[in-house]
Amino acid sequence: MKKDSGYNTRQKEIILDYLVKNKDKHTNVQEISAYLLSGGSSVGTATIYRQLDKLVESGVVRKYNFDGKTGACYQYIDEHEHCKEHFHLKCTVCGKLIHLECDHLSGVNEHIKNHHGFTVDPSQTVFYGICAECAGNK
To answer: Distance between CA 42 and CA 33 in Å, rounded?
Structure first.
């Protein structure tokens, strides 16, 4: 028996709605699954990955693979998307991901390209360390 394609569309819409509401952060499948469960929708992780892959393919969502140890993160790309233009900070204690827009680092890409012949993708570049909140708790 063929599944109702409307069900997959509804799932995709719910997932996209969550991503739009959280467009200022990177989210993962576990967070999306918890959101769906809290709204009364029990959706398997394989289905969530499948829907996310469709959204990535359509260019609506960006997928990030940062360290090879943790699962991928996803982020909705709005019409004023600028995440590819800045670096990221990831706290090794709490896992928080911070978008770093810093004038001091604006020339790093140029320097690396001009002096080292390498083009950096800022959207995939992450500095690891401890955020201010976690540092304050120690």
So the answer is: 8
Residues 67 and 89 in one domain: no
- 114 pLDDT above the threshold of 90: yes
The helix-helix angle for 29-38 and 45-57 (nearest 10°) equals 110
Over residues 16-38, the pLDDT tens digits come to 999 999 887 778 899 999 999 99
Cβ neighbours of residue 55 closer than 8 Å, sequence gap 6 or more: 12, 15, 16, 19, 61, 74
Same domain, yes or no, for 49 and 14? yes
Domain region containing 70: 5-76
Distance from C-alpha of 132 to C-alpha of 28, rounded to nearest angstrom? 23
Residue 15 and residue 72 share a domain: yes
* Final residue in a domain of this structure, among 76, 102, 128: 76
- The structure tokens listed for 25 are 């952060």
pLDDT at 75: 82
